[in-house]
TrEMBL record:
Entry protein name: Fe2OG dioxygenase domain-containing protein
GO molecular function, one term: metal ion binding
Species of origin: Panicum hallii var. hallii
Family label: Belongs to the iron/ascorbate-dependent oxidoreductase family.
Domain Fe2OG dioxygenase residues, every copy: 185-285
Swiss-Prot/TrEMBL keywords: Iron, Metal-binding, Oxidoreductase
PROSITE patterns for this protein: FE2OG_OXY (PS51471)
């Protein structure tokens, strides 16, 4: 099968199937715009204001002193990088193109309907909370430390996401536990994204512009730059901060806050010099959860902007229309 797993190292030129048209890969801005870095150890009122301001302005920010043990972060990053260095034969059994399979390895997914492919391999893991033996046994057993590293990482990473949601609730006037229960009760989905060195990174994309489908995302982006965020018509490069999580909002948070907090488009770019591995942690609703604008944020002067929708139905439409913001917005706006 022709995919990055078997062919990336052998190509000295970029295969045509990975070439995006110039208008689909505008260069990042040279403007000096940086994501805010928020110290979660600061006083709560200060952190709440910073999170809300960054969320409204950029939809993205980075957090440090977040409480996820440094060892858990290091082990997760190391095991994920080691997984992608395994021989192809050790990963082959986990490879699947079945998008409904909760735990799988896949590669160079087709972009939209144009046929272009991303320069990315992805290991996707479904992590019930709390994790159980059945869930752990469905994760890869190589490298040997991977399962324990995932389990030790996911619980505290989810806790950071839930604390950020509580801070956002306090900031916008919702009860602090508004997002507890079904709105955050689905499996925690972990995407380990691996971008091999690319022979012509100026004409390829690791991931095209997209908005996240979930509630809130926490990303360990590693030490190699590649994440870019849409901002005021430009793309800004996100510079890695050691040990930080990059945080952004998904469509479910935008619907629930009636557009007060927005899901912002972002993309990933490959490079020629070094591989890049990132770990994205997605906090998801349950499939049958009904997501709608919070009653507290709707009124005569602020009518509902989005229709109520189950997460299952949202995902059906999201997959059909694609992950671009404009398409999703059109599908769910009132």
């Amino acid at each position: 099968m022709e995919n990055l797993l078997s062919s990336a190292a052998s190509h000295k030129t970029l295969p045509d199937s990975f070439v995006f048209a110039p208008d689909q890969r505008p260069p990042a801005s040279a403007a000096d715009v940086a994501l805010p870095v928020i110290d979660l150890a600061r006083p709560r009122d200060e952190v709440r204001r910073a999170v809300l301001e960054a969320g409204k302005e950029l939809g993205f920010f980075q957090v440090v002193n977040h409480g996820v043990p440094e060892q858990a972060v290091r082990d997760m990053e190391a095991c994920c990088e080691e997984f992608f260095r395994l021989p192809a034969a050790d990963k082959a059994a986990f490879y699947s193109e079945d998008a409904d399979r909760p735990n799988r390895l896949f590669s160079s997914t087709t972009y939209g309907t144009g046929g272009e492919r991303y320069w990315r391999d992805c290991l996707r893991l479904a992590c019930p909370f709390p994790a159980d033996a059945t869930a752990r046994d469905a994760w890869p057993d190589k490298p040997g430390r991977l399962r324990s590293a995932v389990e030790a990482f996911v619980a505290p990473a989810r806790a950071v996401g839930m604390e950020l949601l509580r801070l956002l609730c306090e900031g916008v006037g919702l009860r602090p536990d508004y997002f507890d229960g079904e709105l955050s009760g689905g499996d925690v989905v972990v995407n380990v994204n691996h971008y091999p060195p690319c022979p012509d990174p100026e004409r390829a994309l690791g991931l095209p512009p997209h908005c996240d489908r979930n509630l809130i995302t926490l990303l360990l982006q590693g030490g190699v730059p590649g994440l870019q965020v849409s901002y005021r018509g430009d793309w800004i490069r996100v510079q890695p901060v050691p040990g930080a999580f990059v945080v952004n909002f998904g469509h479910q948070l935008e619907i629930a806050t009636n557009g007060l907090l927005r899901s912002v488009e972002h993309r990933a770019t490959p490079n020629a010099a070094a591989p890049r591995t990132s770990v994205a942690t997605f906090i998801m609703p349950t499939e049958d959860c009904l997501v709608a604008p919070a009653a507290e944020l709707v009124g005569a002067c602020n009518p509902p902007r989005y229709r109520a929708v189950t997460f299952r139905e949202f995902m059906r439409v999201y997959k059909a229309v694609g992950a671009r913001r404009e398409s999703v917005e059109k599908a769910f706006r009132v």
